[in-house]
Amino acid sequence: AHLGLERLERVYQQQGAPHKFEEQCRRFIDAHPQDWRVRLGLGLHLARHGRPLEAFALLIDALEQNPHGLT
After folding, report:
1. Which band of pLDDT confidence, cut at 50, 70 and 90, is reported for residue 67?
2. Long-range contact set of residues 4-11: C-beta below 8 Å, sequence gap at least 24
3. pTM to 2 decimals?
4. Rounded to the nearest 5 degrees, what angle is found at the Cα of 1, between the Cα atoms of 47 and 9?
5. Rounded CA gap, 69 and 22, in Å?
6. CA 52 to CA 56: how far, in whole Å?
7. What is the pLDDT of residues 2-46, one digit of tens each?
8. Taking a C-beta distance cutoff of 8 angstroms, is the pair 25, 42 a contact?
9. For position 40, what pLDDT does the model report?
10. pLDDT one-digit tens code per residue, 35-63
11. How far is it between the farthest Cα atoms of the chain?
12. Cβ distance 51 to 12 under 8 Å?
């Protein structure tokens, strides 16, 4: 899943529409609230785009969904 998110992010970046990656991720999170991978992907995306507080919140949410992610 993570590689797919990286590819999707790269495509939107190449198209000059990185905001669409965020929109798609948020839609997916709304539809699948237990999926930690998309939270992780979006959190990393936001961190790379200068939005560390939003990124941190999503990364904490991802960790709550998958506490074993630290190991």
Report:
1. confident
2. 5/37, 5/38, 5/41, 6/41, 9/41, 9/45
3. 0.87
4. 45
5. 22
6. 6
7. 678 899 999 999 999 989 999 999 999 999 999 999 999 999 999
8. yes
9. 92
10. 999 999 999 999 999 999 999 999 999 99
11. 35
12. no
Between the alpha carbon of residue 48 and those of residues 28, 44, 56, the distances in Å are: 20, 6, 12
> Which amino acid is residue 14, in one-letter code?
Q
Distance from C-alpha of 70 to C-alpha of 6, rounded to nearest angstrom: 20
Please name the amino acid found at residue 32.
H
Give SS3 for 22.
helix
CA neighbor of 49 nearest in space, from 12, 31, 4: 12
